[in-house]
Design brief:
Blueprint: E1 2-6, E2 10-17, E3 28-36, H1 38-48, E4 53-59, H2 61-72, E5 77-82, E6 88-95, E7 100-103, H3 112-125, E8 131-135, H4 146-156, E9 160-164, H5 167-175, E10 180-181, H6 185-192, H7 199-211, E11 216-220, E12 226-230, E13 233-238, H8 250-263, H9 268-283, H10 293-299, E14 304-307
Parallel strand pairs: 1-4, 1-8, 2-6, 4-5, 8-9, 9-10, 10-11
Antiparallel strand pairs: 2-3, 6-7, 11-12, 12-13, 13-14
Helix pairs in contact: 1-8, 4-5, 6-7, 8-9, 9-10
Length: 309
């Protein structure tokens, strides 16, 4: 089983507009509401690919009740750890040209008791798991070392970890030695405190991040694919050109498809290839929509692998 953890879930309110412009009117073409969060999205993709997954998340307030309803319709097993405060609501607006604005609330504070319950919920499930995907931001006030504690806990149970977060939680998390860390370009820039512009920058960044503690790194670069750093070296994973309609969720699809492929017995680099194929296919779909396995299979052979150095 692949476990996912979303400590800061949300109700995602998604809007598709005809265009996004300043100081002029635009028209809403469609709206939808989904249970959101990086781990929730990853579990959705893993399940749609035929994998076995369980999503663990927090849940509280009236918005939490709505979140549970939406979660029940996604088709995978989930465990909600109750908290006192309302979970957040996020807004994503995408137009027909692919321009996207995403506005996220910071999320509710968690008490020490609630954090302990969440930690215990993860610990109870680790004995039946092969991977733990630790996904998304920490709510305000949660110690940045919480994710590093979970990485160490999973290692003690023989469970591999993928860390997908930002800020101080990423800084402390990489030092705990996760199996894989999967930042996007902006997250990597904040982690390394430097701008990443050229191909050389990307290759060097993946190597530098790996030197900070994780076994492997997948640096996600959007339409440019990814750079993967592992014990065997550094690789560029380059997707075919597609028309990007909505990039939201592409990174979640990459992490999910990578983990699914590893569970299928693929080697690391080919698993990243599956991840890039899923992320690219997802970005080519309208709204916040995730690519199917068939759509990912169609792109997979067209994803190019180059040895970086």
């Amino acid at each position: 089983m692949i476990l996912t953890l979303t400590i800061n879930p949300a109700i995602d309110h998604n809007v598709i507009a005809d265009r996004l412009v300043f100081e002029d009117r635009a028209y809403i073409l469609a709206t939808s509401e989904t249970a959101g969060g990086r781990g929730i999205n990853a579990s959705y993709v893993i399940k749609s690919f035929g994998g076995d997954t369980l999503a663990i998340s927090t849940c509280g307030g009236k918005s939490g009740d709505r979140f549970r309803q939406l979660l029940c319709g996604l088709g995978f097993a989930a465990e909600c750890v109750p908290i006192q405060n309302e979970i957040r609501t996020n807004l994503t607006i995408t137009d027909r040209q692919g321009l996207t604005v995403k506005l996220n609330q910071p999320g509710p504070p968690l008490t020490k008791e609630e954090l302990n319950r969440l930690y215990s919920a993860v610990e109870k499930r680790l004995d039946g798991a092969s991977w733990l995907l630790i996904c998304g931001s920490l709510p305000p006030g949660v110690p940045p070392g919480f994710y590093s504690r979970l990485v160490k806990l999973a290692r003690a149970h023989g469970v591999k970890t993928l860390l997908d977060t930002d800020g101080d939680a990423l800084i402390e998390g990489v030092e705990a030695g996760p199996t894989v860390v999967a930042p996007n370009q902006q997250e990597a820039e904040r982690l390394l405190n430097t701008a990443l512009i050229t191909r050389g920058h990307f290759l060097e960044a993946a190597t530098r991040i790996r030197d900070m503690g994780p076994e492997s790194v997948i640096l996600s670069l959007g339409s440019r694919g990814a750079v993967a750093a592992t014990a065997a070296g550094v690789f560029e994973v380059i997707p075919p050109r597609v028309e990007a309609v909505c990039p939201i969720g592409a990174g979640d699809a990459l992490a999910a498809a990578f983990t699914w492929a590893m569970e299928q017995g693929r080697d690391f680099v080919d698993a990243v290839r599956w991840g890039v194929a899923a992320g690219t296919a997802t970005a080519s779909l309208p709204g916040v929509t995730f690519a199917t396995l068939d759509q990912t299979k169609e792109l997979h052979p067209r994803v190019e692998i180059r040895k970086g150095r």
